Amino acid sequence: MDLVLRRGILKDDEVIWGDIQVIASMPEYRTMNPVPIVNKRTNSIVLVFVAFPQDLSEADLIKGQEYQQKVLVTKSRDNGLTWSEPRDVSETTLGMMDPRPHIYASGPGHGIQLTSGRLVVPGSVFWKPPHETGFLSEIKHKILEFFDCFYNAQSRSMVIYSDDGGETWEQGGGVPAAFDQEGQLVNANECQIVEFDDGRAYINSRTLGVQTPRQQAFSQDGCLTFNPGELATQLPEPGHTLTKWIPSVRNFGGCQASILGFRAPSSVPPDAYDMTSWVLFSNPASTETRVNMSVRLSRNGCRTWSAPWQLNSGASAYSDLVGYETRTSDRVPVLNFACLYECGSLHPYERIVFQTFTLEKMMQGVGMETKAEPTQDIPESALET
User: Fold this and answer.
1) Which of 67, 205, 297, 330 is least enclosed by beta carbons within 10 angstroms?
2) Which residues form the signal peptide (predicted)?
């Protein structure tokens, strides 16, 4: 399975999409979960992704003793036209984890470069802690594992990082799990990160509980450690139709989401609680199913969030946010954003949409049913490989 991209060129407020390009081709492996980071110090793009053996299913991977996969990195110095040969950094990242994970997934979505220059790739790990021993315990474990290969598995969000522009990579901090209202440990999963102007990093994670909101945590030391996770009750996410009778991460509630940090615009009158760093958040804003792709804004360091501003009312799933600046004919800067997301009529995986909007329009529409700019579809035929 190839890892591919399409380059888009912004021209007269319209994105002109190029043809599909292959970034990496790995025979006998499934390449997945690309995490791009723009290295502003070298004007290059660093891309981290994972590869799983093609003949091993998810069930095979979680039943193994430890990871059976690769973590790879490639670079582009010409805005994605060409890419270096992928390098395997599994041993310095997954190989240093204790316990070693059964499955590691990078991202998905963008990573970030901290003010220090550090490159940070958010991700998550699955592992199985030792279960109770004894005859009856073994029988119970085998029966439950027969019906659910993820029985007794745990998941948490974590990061890997590089301090030399992506040449070498190390294990970063993991987020200590939050607990729900019933005192049960929350299994966190796919995540993204922003950095505030005061140097703190904020990580926002999908949770796998059927009715659990998102998890959030902060780091004071460049993502080497994180404070214990806490539930972000203002950020609900979709549940799942699977039952809670078997206590397992296999219920797989929630959905991937995206966060993006940016400097507060000087044109907006400041609020008493405003920070200089603002954050956008996108996800399917529903507690039931994957519908209603929306964007929220936090102006106070992710302590509170605006009401959701709807991009798409129908079925929608994974997303990623990006910001960019344009100028009016009078050379006045305009802060723009784009959301790349999955959506469809019958289910969320019919097409991928690239939708642009301005901060001004988003702020005007917060709490109302105002629509964003018309969507621009990436033709489904162009996504086939």
Assistant:
1) 330
2) none
Structure tokens at 328: 């009016």
Q: What is the DSSP letter of 275?
A: -
From 224, 228, 235, 226, select the one nearest 259 (Cα to Cα): 235
Q: How many residues does the chain have?
A: 385
Q: What is the pLDDT along the chain (385 residues), one digit of tens a residue?
A: 899 999 999 988 889 999 999 999 999 999 999 999 999 999 999 999 999 999 988 888 888 878 999 999 999 999 999 999 999 999 999 999 998 999 999 999 999 999 999 999 999 999 887 777 777 777 876 776 766 777 778 899 999 999 999 999 999 999 999 998 888 899 999 999 999 999 999 999 999 887 789 999 999 999 999 999 999 999 999 985 444 444 444 556 899 999 999 999 887 877 878 899 999 999 999 998 899 999 999 999 999 999 999 999 999 999 999 999 888 888 888 889 999 999 999 999 999 999 999 998 999 998 533 334 444 554 444 343 3
Dihedral angle, C-alpha 250, 252, 256, 257, nearest 10 °? -140
Q: How far, in Å, CA of 359 to CA of 43, rounded?
A: 26
Tell me the β-bridge partners of 20.
6
* Per-position DSSP letters for 348-361, written without gaps between them: TTSEEEEEEEEHHH
In the DSSP assignment, the letter for residue 27 is T
Separation between Cα atoms, residue 349 and residue 315, nearest integer Å: 8
**Cα diameter, the chain:** 78
Measured between alpha carbons, how far is 48 from 41 in angstroms, rounded to an integer? 18
Residues 6+ apart with CB under 8 A from 263: 197, 276, 277, 278
Alpha carbon distance 72, 92 (integer Å): 11
Query: What would the two tokens of residue 314 be?
Result: 């129908």
Domains in the chain (CATH in brackets) are 24-256 (2.120.10.10)
Task: Concatenate the DSSP letters of all residues of 314-366 into one string.
Answer: EEEEEEEEEEEEEE-TT--EEEEEEEEEEEESSSTTSEEEEEEEEHHHHHHHT
- 218 close to 201: Cβ distance less than 8 angstroms: yes
Q: Give kind and range of the element (H or E) at residue 59.
A: helix 58-63
